[in-house]
Amino acid sequence: MAELCGIVGIGQTKLAAKRVDVSMPGLVREAADRALTDAGLDWRDIDAVVVGKAPDTFEGCMLPELYLADALGAPGKPLLRVHTAGSVGGSTAIVAASLIQAGIHDRVLTVAYEKQSESNAMWGLSISAPFGVAVVAGAGGFFAPLVRGYMRRSGAPDDVGIRVAVKDRLNALRNPYAHLHLADINYQMVEQSPMLWDPIRLLEACPSSDGACAMVLAREKLAKDAPTRPAWVHATAMRSEPTMFAGRDAINPEAGKQAARDLYAKAGITDPRREIDCAEIYVPFSWFEPMWMENLGFAPEGSGWRMTVEGATALDGDLPVNMSGGVLSSNPIGASGMLRFAEAAMQVRGQAGEHQIAGARRALGHAYGGGSQYFSMWIVGSEKP
Amino acid sequence: MADPVKSIVTPIRLEYDYTPGRATSRFLRGIARHCILGQECPKCHKVYVPPRGSCPACAVPTEREVEVRDTGTVVTFSIIRVPSENIHFELPYAAISVLLDGAGIPFFHVVQDIPLDQVRMGLRVRARWVATEALAPTIASIECFVPSGEPDAPWESFREHS
């Protein structure tokens, strides 16, 4: 790459079920203002804006990037919207980073959001195509059969999903921005929560959240003088594949494996479990932690669940996963990918407060979307690559 | 000062014309005469049901038409207990991923006439069609799947599809 990209500002809103105190423009503005404040910059310092959110059908707001242009300080500047379903927050950050790396812009603001309280994502995700039958009730209905397939093929104990749910929700108690703060969360509470999409229970599923996340990215020359030390982008990778094709492994998709291999090769990583200090990955349903541990190459196929059971993914484990509480604790869909990327950057900047992993030098941010068909991921570090 | 307006409901309604294309048109016309048509990939020889006119895995057009049976295997499933306004099955119901005999890819439907706690991977099922006079070029011509009474299919026979 021609230019190094540094993350010099990070902002997020309080993630909550309903933010009726702000409009959609107010929500994105809040996150963007915080990112600019963190960067010690002003709107005038921004050269371009890259925004991402989930499909327009969710809030029913067509072309929200037009509606939000002024709130994002975009008049007179390039404004791009990125669109890759649930992974969009991640791919939006990657597009923004590529504008820096390509030497096109000096400083780019990137923002992702969702206002689920104004939306009907369940309707938007329960697609009724003319050649198919509408039976998949929301994302849970689509992913539950895959979780069942994973349980069968891996032979994992039935309660791995419960353990992940407890871990991530305990982590969320350390994150003031997280939506769900369930102070009394425990194993029995998750186990006894209602089955929604068997085998996925209520407390093994993500909530619906309002929220936005923003980052300011800058080229090396400008990033090195930032008031808080930047996180440096070491590598980015994106891949996609069709939702359905004969022979597709939807549980361990090839696109995710390819993206991870590409990412590690670019970052010079040969042993990801040893060389990465912590990972913030997209786990909207608890069983996706072990599934993605395998897909990302942290564990051999069929044994990702062992990392959960052995505590490797806990805050004090050898590869802490979802330190912020993850998607299981907050899911403003469009922003969820960027929150993962931002958490990785916060960790290597030492900004993660009560959920900081001591001495984190290299972190992975990961997002997926669609029918496990879009993957975006980055590795950020406290040192230049 | 009056209470601020914090939210208003603004319904939208969308209605689309849909052009299914050649492959799906033939599939839908087949359904209207009680016949499930797939297309075989000339490279991987897997049969797409419903057909889309190409094999994304091999990046080639699929032209050879193959009739598949209306019996199949439940390769994975979920018991759905969450309402969604555009889904018309009574809750709870068993959403299945069903691999028809002769097909190389499963699709989603529901299985009925079986207690929900007996729905399982490997269950053999057959299509229950609407009455002949009600057959139409829509997948809704298959009302649901029901157990066929055959012994379960072994895991190895459908592992790659679940």
Description:
The complex is a heterodimer of chains A (385) and B (162). Chain A has helices at 24-39, 64-67, 88-101, 121-125, 138-154, 160-172, 187-191, 220-223, 254-267, 272-275, 288-295, 304-309, 326-329, 333-349, and strands spanning 5-12, 48-52, 79-82, 107-115, 195-198, 200-201, 210-219, 231-240, 278-280, 362-369, 374-381. With 385 residues, chain A is α/β, with parallel strands linked by helices. Chain A has a domain at 5-120 and 208-223: Thiolase/Chalcone synthase (Peroxisomal Thiolase, Chain A, domain 1, 3-Layer(aba) Sandwich), CATH 3.40.47.10. In chain A, the strands form two sheets. A nine-stranded mixed β-sheet of chain A has the order 3-2-4-7-1-8-11-10-9. In chain A, α3 (88-101) packs across α14 (333-349). The longest helix of chain A has 17 residues, at 138-154. Chain A is globular and about 55 Å long. The termini of chain A are close together. The model of chain A has no long low-confidence stretch (mean pLDDT 96). Chain B is mainly beta and 162 residues long. Chain B has two domains: 19-68, no CATH class; 70-162, OB fold (Dihydrolipoamide Acetyltransferase, E2P), CATH 2.40.50. Helix content of chain B is 7%, strand content 31%. Chain B is built from one helix and ten strands. Chain B has one helix at residues 21-32, and strands at residues 36-40, 47-48, 54-55, 60-61, 64-68, 71-80, 93-100, 107-111, 124-129, 142-147. In chain B, the strands form three sheets. Chain B has a five-stranded antiparallel β-sheet, with no helix packed on it. The radius of gyration of chain B is 19 Å and the shape is globular. Chain B starts with 20 loop residues before the first helix and ends in a 15-residue tail after the last strand. The mean pLDDT of chain B is 93. The interface between A and B is large, with 42 and 52 residues.
